[in-house]
Amino acid sequence: MIEIKNLKKFFDAPNGFNKKVHAVDGVSFNISKGETLGLVGESGCGKTTLGRTIIKLYEPDEGKIIFDGKDITDISPKKMLPFRKKIQMIFQDPYASLNPRMTVGDIIKEPMIIHKIPKNLHDEKLNYLLKLVGLNSEHSGRYPHEFSGGQRQRVGIARALAVEPEFIICDEPISALDVSIQAQIVNMLEDLQKELGLTYLFIAHDLSMVKHISNRVAVMYLGKIVEIADSSELYSNPLHPYTISLLSSIPVPDPDKSKKRNSIVLEGEVPSALNPPLGCNFHIRCPKAKPECKNFDMTLKDFGNGHLCSCKFV
Amino acid sequence: MNRNILSVENLSVSFFTSAGEVKAVDDVSFDVKKGEILGIVGESGSGKTATMLSILNLQGENGKIKSGSIKFHDNHDIIRGKNISMIFQDPMTSLNPVLTIGYQLEEALKRHKWNGNIRQRSIEILEKVGIVPAVQRLKQYPHEFSGGQRQRIMIAMSIICNPDLLIADEPTTALDVTVQAQILKLMKDLQIENGMSIILISHDLGVIAGEADRILIMYAGKIMEHGTVREIFYNPAHPYTKGLLRCVPNPDKPKERLIPIEGQPPDLLNPPKGCPYVKRCPNAMKICLENKPELNNLTETHGYSCWLGVKK
Questions:
Q1: B223-227: which pairs have CB atoms within 8 A and are 24 or more residues apart?
Q2: If both were cysteines, with which of A36, A105, A280, B113 could A200 make a disulfide (CB 3.0 to 4.6 Å apart)?
Q3: Are the beta carbons of A309 and A230 closer than 8 angstroms?
């Protein structure tokens, strides 16, 4: 359904000197219909930029975005409108992504107006959507500040669903919520997927939640995908040293197991994307790094069953 | 190990806002023993931070300790200072951006009249938390450090006077998992080395499971359950604790549907008359609506406050 080929997005560095921030640096993957692809990585690795570039909130610098067989990389904003209807986004911060001066009803109706859905259908749709996300029609006259974080995220989801999209980019939809509320939202996203046949790109840094919701998971580091596989395969048999250390540092809610586990604590932090390391971009922090890694171009190799990994020594 | 260094008894704290009185902490009692890590788990608004701020007498102008006592080493006096220190959640906003970190580290030493070489102590402590080369880095400003490094500096600052108790309020929530692992390891190493006690506040049950010796579960300003880490994780008694443990996916187990806790936490402007959890509790009974449950002790270390299982 969605095909991304060698997508690149660079930003100009704040103080010039012709330097570029390599936010997304040659990413390729595809997502088939009805699937959830999880995208994990540390902050600053380019997850959000990738999500926003796919929906063309940022113009890509290189590469192709193919949606339903049509190349949407270079089409004009006007021609993009029908695709925007099919691709929607749920944002991270339910406090910042809703206009505080609009009522919930107006917030959810706004995309319907933009996409010219006949006016007589609006109210009926609004009630249906509110019910779908577990709110009720009395809520439509209220303002965002009258709601809790979890309820606001429900409003954000209803807004995304208002134009009947096929593909939703969920950019950290639960990371601002409390644990007990996270499970409510995740269950709801799963139900909606089944009911409406949605396809998700689920961006998050909570690795255990990503495993739970995704069919496949892609691990991103400094603008590049280092490994991608079926979620159970990735968690039981990670290949890339970065994935291995990332998985070993997930805190497990089980005291005995967590005492037994040898977590690999990575040294240092993610290097600047302004000046990414040459060769394999992980070699500076990698516990298994060898001198050759400096000249390795990080192509993804196939290890069977769609398990791709970009480490030279696997 | 068994000596209490901090004991809090029947503490109630309210904040007075334009909308009315918010009962943030309601009749909370607990103690911290020497050399242990006490984990406090709770959702936002459950009173975790308010309790800690009151211990340090930092509850602010509109906050008021309504009742209860706080004893530190059997001493009732104001206990803020070099013996208790606190690390905050957000390392970006807890450092002063216009002062060098050297100045900020030395400030604590000067304030608490450190008798020794102040400069040398700053260098020593910065090396201990892994910020090298310390001599040069002392001259730098907070913006020259990454998030994880800033949290290391916060830790350095908080242990520079050798406190007996360190309160860490969500110290890794703003950090990535790989950096979180580094910071937690550092805290544990320092705790073993200095023999200090730590109160670790987190909403991440995984972090608490890995670090804490004992746990308090807080909800709506009250302690719902307390026990050792194994008692809480393997033998939870309170429906809220059970609910919390069920709603996080376990990465080591095959996929199952999550069981969320339905509903929202209560509004503390007018808290429910009975048990604060009654509206979300699958086991709620008539008595829960009317009367506040008492603390039931299961073992010497394990207790919960719920009407369930109480014989009349």
A1: B223/B28, B223/B29, B223/B30, B223/B295, B223/B305, B224/B277, B224/B304, B224/B305, B224/B306, B225/B302, B225/B303, B225/B304, B225/B305, B226/B30, B226/B301, B226/B302, B226/B303, B226/B304, B227/B298, B227/B299, B227/B301, B227/B302, B227/B303
A2: A36
A3: no
Of B43, B251, B261, nearest to A207 by CB-CB distance is B251
Nearest-angstrom CA–CA distance, B232 and B235: 6
Selecting from B176, B185, B251 the residue whose C-beta is nearest the C-beta of A211 gives: B251
Which residue of A48, A180, A185, A210 is the best one to mutate when testing the B interface, meaning the one whose CB has the most B CBs within 10 A? A180
Q: Give, rounded to a whole angstrom, the gap between the first and last alpha carbons of chain A.
A: 30
| Helix B118-128 / helix B101-111 crossing angle, nearest 10 deg | 120
CATH class assigned to B4-83+163-305: alpha beta
For chain B, the average pLDDT equals 88
In the sheet with B222-228, reading across from the earlier edge strand, the strands are B84-87, B165-169, B197-202, B37-41, B214-219, B222-228, B303-305, B295-297
C-alpha A94: how far from its chain's center?
A: 16
Note whether A265 contacts B148, CB cutoff 8 Å.
no
**Is the bond preceding A82 in cis, omega lying within 30 degrees of 0?**
no
Cross-chain Cβ contact A183/B251 below 8 Å: no
Q: For residue B4, what pLDDT is reported?
A: 87
- Domain-wise residue ranges, chain A: 2-309
Q: Name every residue whose Cβ is closer than 8 Å to that of residue B116 and which is 6 or more positions away in sequence.
A: none
pLDDT tens-digit map of A115-160 = 999 999 999 999 999 999 988 888 899 999 988 888 999 999 999 9
| Residue B222 CA to its chain's centroid (Å) | 14
C-alpha dihedral over B274, B279, B281, B286, to 10 degrees?
50
Q: Which residues in chain B are closer than 8 Å to A211, comparing Cβ atoms? A: 249, 251, 255
CA distance A98 to chain B (A): 20
A183: chain B residues, CB-CB within 8 Å? 247-248, 258-261
Size of chain A, expressed as the number of residues it contains: 314
The larger pLDDT score, comparing residue B113 to residue B298, is at B298
Separation between Cα atoms, residue B251 and residue A232, nearest integer Å: 9
Lowest mean pLDDT among A268-272, B18-22, B108-112, B261-265: A268-272
**Amino acid type, B66:** K
CB pairs under 8 A between A and B: 124
Rounded distance between C-alpha atoms, residue B240 and residue B205, angstroms? 13
The residue whose two tokens read 């607990």 is B30
Furthest C-alpha separation in chain B: 68
Asked if B181 and A179 come within 8 Å (Cβ–Cβ), the reply is no
The answer for residues whose C-beta is within 8 angstroms of residue B14's C-beta and 6 or more apart is B21, B22, B23, B24, B63, B64, B66
Residue B80 has pLDDT above 70, yes or no: no
Lowest-confidence pick of A220-229, B108-117, B232-241 = B108-117
Indicate the CATH number for domain A2-309. Answer: 3.40.50.300
